Amino acid sequence: MFKDNEQQPNGFTLPLAQALDHLRWNEAGLVPAIARQHDTGEVLMMAWMNREALEDTLRTGRVCYYSRSRGGLWRKGESSGQTQTLIELRIDCDGDTVLVNVDQTGPACHTGRRDCFYWRADGEQLVLDKAPLIDPADLYPDKH
Amino acid sequence: MFKDNEQQPNGFTLPLAQALDHLRWNEAGLVPAIARQHDTGEVLMMAWMNREALEDTLRTGRVCYYSRSRGGLWRKGESSGQTQTLIELRIDCDGDTVLVNVDQTGPACHTGRRDCFYWRADGEQLVLDKAPLIDPADLYPDKH
Predict the structure, then answer these.
(1) Is B134 on the interface with A (CB under 8 A)?
(2) How far is A74 from chain B (nearest CA, A)?
(3) Chain A residue with Cα closest to B86
(4) pTM of the prediction?
(5) Burial of A25 by CB count in 10 Å (0-12 exposed, 13-18 middle, 19+ buried)?
(6) Tell me, what's the ipTM?
(7) Chain A contact for B140, CB < 8 A?
């Protein structure tokens, strides 16, 4: 369906429910979802969505992922309070990746950093170059 | 290794080769790689890298992916001429996703569009809202 319609003009529409039937969910029923801060263009994190998480995101306007470690829906911010408000949800040319433009409250990363990409390759090293905004002990008080 | 070092201070380093040993490559030996235009913050595309593609990217300064359809290295732009010059390569907190900040020549998408995320969810529809910069027939003349 995505391939068949890639040469359509701007403004062309597909029914959402039918398009979701044609997403290229992996063998676990998931697609990668990239979260980007809508105004600054920071890439905050990458996680996974199943269909239920994607539909929940669109219905509620709060980003919801599928947690592979917990095996269930993960409403971003439900433990940490650091929610992602959905600005827009996009799907790529071959229907196998989601991009959510969001408004992130505070840190997106479980380490308390604004985003998850704090290791930068530099020659023969990886350098940690971003500091936490919030102590993770304060993000997840139940864990401590 | 990533988990063990998430509370290290800014400037802490890991040996790159050892860190790559600890990336969470999937069962096909791949990690997702997000390409972002370094200055505008556009998310251009998502593709996959194996270790060889990642090392090739760092060595050459041109972004190289692994093509799952072709089953081999995919030096971005080798057929289309639309290369991605590497600005910086980052790895996320749990070592399972790569972010490349790049300088993209022209369109990143095989459809001739600047980026691959041209389907936007809007109510019960997906709306195509980005037009090609270049006719794909001119991007891949060998295919036509």
Answers:
(1) no
(2) 17
(3) A121
(4) 0.95
(5) middle
(6) 0.95
(7) no
